[in-house]
Design goal:
single chain, 558 residues, alpha/beta, Rossmann fold, pyruvate-formate lyase- activating enzyme, 3 domains, 7-stranded mixed beta sheet, 5-stranded mixed β-barrel, 17 helices, 25 strands, 35% helix, 20% strand, globular, binds S-adenosyl-L-homocysteine, binds iron/sulfur cluster, binds FE3-S4 cluster
Length: 558
């Protein structure tokens, strides 16, 4: 069989990017070849997000495009992976029969088998003269309700654990930066959120596996690691509670924390807390120069974690800790489990431990806000505006509430804020956040900041290709780097993202590059003469900041 050409496009959060990377590794080992555009592929895969309707719309429009091609080329295999596959299930195939393969995020280890079957079925259909209905032979792997049952949880977790463990770590597989999963799923059930339904119950990976993965990445030249989990600071692993099957430790189910405690009360020899895990990675993989984690849950953040962050020079002074709203009433309706007062207490505590602007190590905090949730009044909205002013996020992703089928809010709470009000409120909050981000950026002018180089800037990409980049195709196995980070991306720059491309690019001159500081600020600078841009990627440079706007800093290499 000739090598199958695969196009894989990724939507959604960093968890999905990592999943795409793991899928690509797995398929490449089986002889599949990755191509950068769907036109030349015979297998087209979309790794999807379901967090807002907009994210799903994008995939629906991609499927619409591919439908025409499939009419001409019935051998083409189309697969929908990830959260939308899990949420929509077989209904998606009924509505969009162009889809051959459906694979939920907790079933990705089964993808090679599904694809192999789909390729054979489609080939058979291609050559069939019997007119037999092969359409019914779709390949489907979804967890459904089983994803929260502990027996299946252990088994599924085990095979998923193998997927993470088999990741490629050779230097050509990364640009000096990597994601490492520490927790799967989510148990929080915020009423608006689809993630606990698509990703299943929370489980924690064994700390030895995580540390070993970080060390292997470090040995292969990775210098920046971002730990991933939906409630990443909720990590806790109880040793001895795990069952070993064929020598492989089963992942542990998350336990509910009571909240309000300053330290994990179970810390000790038999438990690896989040603070312990951070310290272990920091100390046991010392060539990792930047360690950060997303996304933090505002409650359950003990002083133990902040102390480890303060005392570990290679852990970034960066927290992404969404509040979602500044109204206690809305927090309750969202089932977030904390009050505005508790949230602010945490922000102040984090700053008192970690904010050291005089040492050029300010603490940068990023957030997420949902605007126009069920029952949100003007008063609630003003309280959110007040929260933005009080917290002073470096950047904040501000989303309009999007009702998601399957969630409690969808079933029980009316989507009763008018679209025009949602839009106005988003714009008002964006304007406030814009001013704050602008002020934070301008305060960096004159300082010397270390930048981890990620690639050429958006302006440069536009100059070279004539267009700006959109969503990400994991085609070349280099884990295509994002210019803008943050949870819940819909494949485009989120609100509040820097508009680097808006600067008119000179027709010639040095190549403009981009990178990030320890606090996740974006810095653009000119590639030095005599250095190729490629050789700069994945290295650190010291820059003096000469000017700034909103989230973009301009630096000169010193
Ligand atoms: N686990 C992370 C967030 C994961 S989803 C956390 O709890 O912080 C990423 C972001 O998408 C959320 O923080 C929230 O702001 C947003 N989001 C989730 N569901 C949404 C919905 N139904 N409508 C609009 N925004 C939503
Ligand atoms: Fe979990 Fe975050 Fe979704 Fe809440 S918003 S249910 S914590 S993923
Ligand atoms: Fe799933 Fe991440 Fe989207 S968990 S719903 S891909 S934000």
């Amino acid at each position: 069989m000739p090598a199958r050409k695969v196009y894989l496009e990724t939507f959604g959060c960093q968890m999905n990017e990592l999943d795409s990377e793991l899928v690509a590794t797995q398929l490449r080992a089986l002889g599949y070849e990755f191509v950068p555009a769907p036109e030349s592929a015979d297998v087209v895969l979309y790794n999807t997000c379901s967090v807002r309707d907009l994210a799903e719309q994008k995939v629906r429009s991609r499927l619409g495009e591919v439908k025409l091609r499939k009419k001409r080329e019935p051998g083409l295999v189309v697969g929908v992976l990830g959260c939308m596959a899990e949420r929509d299930g077989v209904d998606l195939i009924k509505r969009m029969p162009v889809v051959d393969v459906l694979c939920g995020p907790a079933e990705l280890d089964k993808l090679p088998g599904l694809l192999d079957n789909a390729v054979r079925t489609n080939d058979a259909r291609h050559t069939a003269d019997s007119g037999a209905d092969l359409r019914s032979a779709n390949q489907v792997a979804l967890q459904g309700a089983a994803s929260r049952r502990s027996s299946t949880l252990a088994a599924a977790g085990d095979s998923l654990e193998m997927l993470d463990l088999s990741r490629a770590v050779s230097p050509e597989d990364h640009n000096g930066s990597a994601y490492v999963r520490i927790t799967r799923g989510c148990n929080k059930f915020c009423t608006y959120c689809v993630v606990p339904h698509t990703r299943g119950a929370e489980t924690h990976r064994p700390p030895d596996h995580i540390v070993e993965e970080c060390r292997r990445l470090a040995d292969a030249g990775v210098m920046e690691i971002t730990l991933l989990g939906q409630t990443v600071n909720h990590y806790r692993y109880e040793h001895g509670a795990a069952v070993s099957v064929d020598g492989v430790l089963q992942p542990q189910k998350g336990r509910s924390f009571k909240g309000g405690h300053r330290r994990d009360p179970l810390a000790g020899d038999r438990t690896t807390t989040f603070a312990d895990l951070l310290r272990r990675i920091h100390d046991e993989a010392p060539s990792i120069r930047r360690l950060r984690f997303v996304t933090s849950y505002p409650r359950d953040f003990g002083d133990d974690v902040l102390e480890v962050m303060r005392d570990s020079p290679r852990i970034c002074r960066y927290l992404h800790v969404p509040a979602q709203t500044g109204s206690d009433r809305m927090l309750k309706a969202m089932n977030r489990g904390y009050s505005v007062g508790e949230y602010l207490e945490f922000i102040d505590r984090a700053r008192s431990f970690l904010d050291e602007p005089e040492k050029e190590r300010p603490l940068m905090i990023a957030g997420d806000i949902i605007c126009g949730f069920s029952g949100e009044t003007e008063e609630d909205h003003l309280q959110t505006a007040e929260l933005l002013r009080r917290v002073r996020y470096k950047n904040c992703f501000i989303f309009k509430y999007s009702p998601r089928p399957g969630t409690t809010a969808f079933d029980r709470l009316p989507d009763d804020v008018a679209e025009a009000d949602k839009r106005r409120r988003v714009n008002e909050l964006l304007a406030i956040q814009h001013e704050i981000s602008d002020d934070i950026a301008r305060r960096q002018v004159g300082s010397e900041l270390e930048v981890f180089v990620q690639g050429v800037s958006a302006r440069e990409q536009k100059r070279q290709t004539g267009r700006s980049t959109g969503s990400r195709a994991a085609g070349n196995g280099h884990g295509v780097q994002l210019t803008v980070g943050g949870a819940g991306l819909d494949g485009a720059d989120p609100p509040g993202a820097p508009v680097i491309a808006a600067e008119s690019a000179p027709a010639s001159g040095p190549v403009q590059m981009t990178g990030r500081t320890d606090g996740d600020l974006i810095v653009v600078f000119d590639c030095p003469q005599g250095r190729s841009p490629d050789s700069m990627i994945g290295t650190f440079v010291r820059t003096r900041i000469t000017r700034a706007n909103t989230l973009t800093l301009w630096g000169e290499i010193v």
